[in-house]
Design a protein that fits this description.
The complex is a heterodimer of chains A (166) and B (579).
Chain A: H1 14-27, H2 34-45, H3 50-60, H4 64-73, E1 85-90, H5 93-97, H6 100-111, E2 124-129, E3 141-143, E4 146-148, H7 156-164
Helix pairs in contact in A: 1-2, 1-3, 2-3, 3-4
Chain B: E1 3-8, E2 11-16, E3 19-20, H1 21-27, E4 51-54, E5 61-62, E6 67-68, E7 74-76, H2 80-95, H3 111-119, E8 136-138, E9 142-145, H4 154-162, E10 169-171, E11 178-180, H5 197-201, E12 207-209, H6 213-221, E13 226-231, H7 252-261, E14 266-267, H8 270-291, E15 297-298, H9 303-312, H10 326-342, E16 349-355, H11 359-363, E17 379-382, H12 383-392, H13 414-417, H14 424-438, E18 456-463, E19 466-474, H15 476-487, E20 495-499, H16 516-519, H17 524-537, H18 548-558, H19 564-570
Parallel strand pairs in B: 1-7, 13-14, 13-16, 15-20, 16-17, 19-20
Antiparallel strand pairs in B: 1-2, 3-6, 4-5, 4-7, 8-9, 9-12, 10-11, 18-19
Helix pairs in contact in B: 2-3, 8-10, 8-14
The chains are: A alpha+beta (166), B alpha/beta (579).
């Protein structure tokens, strides 16, 4: 699930924290400020890890749970960063009946992460998507802008290796 | 105040403008069912069970939050259409509810089950595709089973609005919405203070106290164990509610008889220990006043408050009285003074308390709570658990005679009894402190200024030239406000009483469940507290320092309040905890 705690260690910089605190200071007097603060925080950090949510909770003097509840309610927020290489596995109808579920499982196993997560070295992030418009090539995965068609689970390690060598 | 006339099911009633339909209907003798609404706690109109028809309005309206603002408004609460909607709402709520009603601990007082019965609804229409599995988080004080949760959010509201902790909330959205803590951490890893208010407001079996009755049954059945049980002050004005008695009925005599009939060896009284608390705490206050100790001194009887202070206001730890709570003093005295007197090895004594409180279950496992070398308490059960034990034992409560506690640690003053209400500890302490300072008996032992259910109360007393400013607060949001005032230097108190639950122990997290249909219209805190104050008023022994047991134990055993031995047995320490 995309809301699971991230496996990526937090690498926030002092500059990022300064920017976030400024955002909080600028917006905190407004009613309903949590949403825009979360949006700007995600701009600054690329995602909303625990550390960032705690800074926001403290800054607004509200419970951490309140921040987490809002962050997990809206799909625009992500609690996991995106990796250097973004993998999307199509789970649309055509791909799914052609076995993309097994490919998806294999990638999770190879990378040691679940859908919605990012590897601790930040090389790969994995998401499921719906139809990418290439049903003739089903099952399809995309890595960054590259499309891989007629995938089988056994092809997964080889393809991932190509990107690891980058 | 502008009054308007409205019609509820054709019955005309006059109400203040902007009264909700729910309240107007009550005035017309009509009960509208509710699930999420709880007065002063949760008013979000989310569950849709209270839908009613307002003539001229588009669609049905939620009675709990709909303000009546026009003269002549006509409302219908029970049309066939409304019944149909309510039925469907219940069917949808039940569609993913794990129905365990035969054995569910809330079966008797589950608000969902009662509505399902009223509307003739079961799980047949929208049966779950697969059996629903339990979804359990267990802490030392409570069990949350989200498979029985209806997402009414009463628990979330009470945690944030009343208790200022906000450690639970609704996570995710849509079908997978569930109540939990950030990143779904177990409750025990959060800054939850164990107050149990969430278990007291839950309409279903999703939040319940951690049931420890099996431990007590096992101890009673064990011939090597000498089982000693004592109830807290407020339990005697709560327990009767389980046996069809009016709220606030004092059932002290029957309660003692019932506990004895469970097969325990001795029935003592935590109220007696409360008198010891006053002796120790009063002495500590006088000491701090005289020797320039940290002031204001803050009471330490409420373990929910203590954990709150440790998490959220660690800078006030030096202000906390080092006195153990009455529960822990009771245990410490049983395993030392009583053990010695009765010639029983403390390791064979099994000490149980009956509390209106779930935080007491956490308190018994705290560090520095083992005066005799053994844990002061072996088990702490709530009023609700005691009621279940009495029922299972087949004891016919209403037919019991009135009995008294065993005298060794079972005689209490009126001061001990009023510990169960907000302001009670303060008043009890003032009765003793005033007489020590002035050397004169009080004309009247009542301190009315500190009574009542208001969130923050203040008073100033002149004790033979010594001016003492006191404050009393209950509910952790109020406590927080008071501490902020002290921090800002706006208030100059010498003594503060804090109880974690709004209204004090009479409204504790382990109290009997009263459904929203009662709680929305009766202030159970005030009614139960009334039971305690009238008991105190009817007594001749009303001051802790006049209690013969207290006198005897100090004379024979502890020497004097604040003595080395007292400190060893009856005082404790605190730790700062993170957030």
């Amino acid at each position: 699930m995309a809301n699971s705690i991230t496996k990526v260690p937090f690498h926030g910089t002092p500059e990022q924290e300064k920017a976030l605190l400024e955002v909080i200071e600028r917006l905190k007097a407004e009613r309903g400020c949590l949403m825009p603060i979360l949006q700007e925080a995600q701009e600054i950090y690329g995602y909303l890890p625990e550390e960032v949510q705690r800074i926001i909770a403290k800054g607004l003097n509200i419970p951490f749970e309140e921040v987490y509840g809002v962050a997990t309610f809206y799909s625009q927020f992500t609690l996991n960063p995106k990796g250097k290489h973004r993998i999307s596995v199509c789970l649309g109808t055509a791909c799914y009946v052609k076995g993309s579920g097994l490919v998806y499982e294999r990638i999770q196993k190879e990378l040691g992460i679940k859908g919605g997560e990012c590897t601790p070295d930040m090389q790969f992030s994995l998401d499921a998507c719906r139809c990418v418009g290439a049903c003739g090539l089903a099952p399809v995965i995309m890595i960054d802008e590259e499309v891989y068609g007629r995938m089988t689970p056994d092809q997964v390690p080889g393809i991932l290796a190509k990107y690891k060598e980058d | 105040m502008e009054m308007i006339k409205v019609k509820i099911n054709g019955i005309e009633v006059e109400v203040e403008k902007n009264t909700t339909i729910l309240d107007a209907a009550k005035k017309a003798g009509v009960r509208i069912p509710t699930l999420c609404y709880l007065r002063e706690i949760n008013a979000i109109g989310a569950c849709r069970i209270c839908l009613v028809e307002v003539k001229g309005a588009r669609g049905l309206c939620a009675a709990c939050v709909y303000p009546l603002d026009r003269d002549g408004t006509e409302v219908f609460t029970n049309t066939p259409e409304i019944q149909k909607y309510r039925k469907m709402t219940l069917e949808l709520i039940l569609s993913n509810h794990r129905m365990e009603c035969l054995s569910c601990v809330r079966s008797d007082d589950c608000e969902l089950r009662q509505l399902a019965a009223e509307y003739g609804v079961d799980q047949n229409r929208f049966a779950p595709a697969e059996p629903i599995k339990p979804d359990i988080d267990e802490a030392v004080h409570l069990v949350r089973d989200n498979s029985k949760c209806i997402l009414c959010r009463r628990c979330v509201a009470v945690c944030k609005a009343n208790q200022y902790t906000g450690v639970i909330g609704a996570n995710n959205r849509g079908y997978i919405t569930h109540i939990g803590s950030p990143f779904d951490e177990p409750l025990s890893n959060t800054s939850c203070v164990n107050c149990g208010q969430c278990t007291a407001v839950c309409p279903t079996g999703a939040l319940t106290e951690k049931d420890d009755t099996d431990k007590v049954w096992a101890a009673i059945a064990d011939p090597t164990k000498h089982v000693v049980v004592a109830p807290a002050p407020s339990v005697r004005v709560q327990l009767g509610e389980y046996f069809d008695m009016p709220i606030g009925t004092n059932v002290e005599g029957k309660m003692i008889a019932a506990i004895r009939r469970l097969g325990v060896d001795k029935v003592f009284d935590v109220d007696t220990a409360a008198d010891f608390t006053i002796m120790e705490e009063g002495t500590e206050l006088l000491e701090r006043l005289k020797n320039g100790g940290t002031l204001p001194m803050i009471t330490s009887c409420s373990p929910g408050w203590i954990k709150f202070c440790e998490h959220y206001y660690p800078e006030f730890i030096p202000n906390l009285s080092t006195c153990k709570s009455p529960q822990q003093m009771y245990g410490a005295l049983v395993k030392t003074y009583y053990a010695e007197k009765a010639g029983i090895d403390p390791k064979d004594i099994y000490v149980v308390s009956v509390m209106p409180c779930t935080a007491k279950k956490f308190e018994i496992g705290r560090e520095d709570q083992a005066g005799s070398g053994y844990p002061d308490l072996d088990c702490s059960i709530t009023t609700r658990e005691l009621a279940r034990m009495i029922k299972r034992a087949g004891i016919v409560f209403a037919d019991l005679p009135d009995e008294e506690c065993d005298p060794a640690l079972g005689i209490a003053s009126g001061a001990g009894h009023i510990f169960g209400a907000t302001g009670g500890v303060m008043e009890a302490a003032l009765r003793t402190v005033a007489e020590i300072v002035t050397g004169q008996p009080l004309e009247t032992p009542e301190f009315h200024e500190v009574r009542g259910v208001e969130g923050i109360k203040e008073a100033e007393y002149d004790l033979a030239g010594t001016k003492i400013k006191v404050a009393v607060t209950s509910g952790l949001r109020n406590a927080s406000e008071l501490l902020e005032r002290v921090k800002r230097g706006e208030a100059d108190y010498q003594f503060i009483e804090v109880m974690a639950c709004p209204g004090g122990c009479v409204n504790g997290g382990g109290q009997p469940h009263q459904p929203a249909s009662v709680r929305n219209f009766v202030d159970v805190r005030a009614v139960r507290a009334g039971g305690l104050y009238s008991e105190d008023e009817g007594m001749t022994l009303r001051k802790s320092h006049e209690n013969p047991v207290v006198k005897q134990v100090y004379e024979e055993f502890l020497k004097q309040p604040g003595s080395h031995k007292s400190h060893e047995l009856l005082h404790t320490s605190y730790v700062a905890r993170g957030l």
